[in-house]
Amino acid sequence: MRKIIIAGNWKMNNTISQAQDLIAALIKNGGDMHKVEVIVAPPFTALRSVYDILGQSSVHVAAQNLFWEESGAYTGEVSPMMVKEAGCKWVIIGHSERRQIFGETDETVNKRTAAALGSELKPIVCIGETLEERDAGQTFDVLHRQLDGGLKGLTEENMAKITIAYEPVWAIGTGKTATPAQAQEAHEKIRAKLSSMFGAGVAEKVRILYGGSMKPANALELLSLPDVDGGLIGGASLKAHDFVDIIKAGIEAEKL
Ligand code: 13P
Questions:
Q1: Distances, alpha carbon 94 to alpha carbons 23, 29, 35, 144, 247, in Å
Q2: Domain extents for the chain?
Q3: What is the pLDDT of residues 35-46, one digit of tens each?
Q4: Which residues are catalytic?
Q5: Is any ligand 1 atom within 6 A of the Cβ of residue 214?
Q6: Rounded to two decimals, what is the model's pTM?
Q7: What is the distance in A from the centroid of ligand 1 to the CA of 89?
Q8: CA-CA distance, 125 to 152, in Å (whole number)?
Q9: Which H, E and C letters describe 128-148, residue by residue?
């Protein structure tokens, strides 16, 4: 049984005070959040203050990125231990915005993933095709390449700590969601690829999240799909009531 994960990626939104307001509203209205695994990924500057407010709540904090070195002359970068000490248990790696805007490659995704595992952080490794790649019939080649490259050298034991997020680039921030059939097909193919890489037993346990314009109106349908084990939510995670509604959809789907 794969416990559903509802993760909010706040991207470059929310100052410290705005982040504190959002997390306070989430805790107040979140209800039975412990029935699923709820994660929020604030910007680096707000990590610690969000973590401090969470207290005994079951919500966990994720960083949106990290660098693979432990320390040194890497201006502008943040190390695994830095985010860990700020309260993170999780880290998002290789988000398509990092790949497309900041030149992230499968190789750098792999280095960050290995560094996160080395510091006992749980990576959420993002993969997904662009619209051009989908239209050219390359979707599954792209996903396979990203999995081969991003997870290179990892062991079966490492895979117990890995979560995959399938985020079709054309669905991110566009209001255009993958249809349930498209999402299920991609997730199934991803699991089959993981099975060929690490064995069926490992693949059955890895959680694969869907991301791309998930919102209260479509969350239950997507989260109920057999190979969709949660959501990575951007825009809708910035509004407490929308995020709470998606968490409720996750709790509902968990029961199915
Ligand atoms: P949206 O939910 O805004 O489409 O963003 C998805 C995403 O990129 C989450 O990482």
A1: 25, 31, 28, 15, 24
A2: 5-255
A3: 999 999 999 999
A4: 95, 167
A5: yes
A6: 0.98
A7: 20
A8: 12
A9: CCCHHHHHCCCHHHHHHHHHH
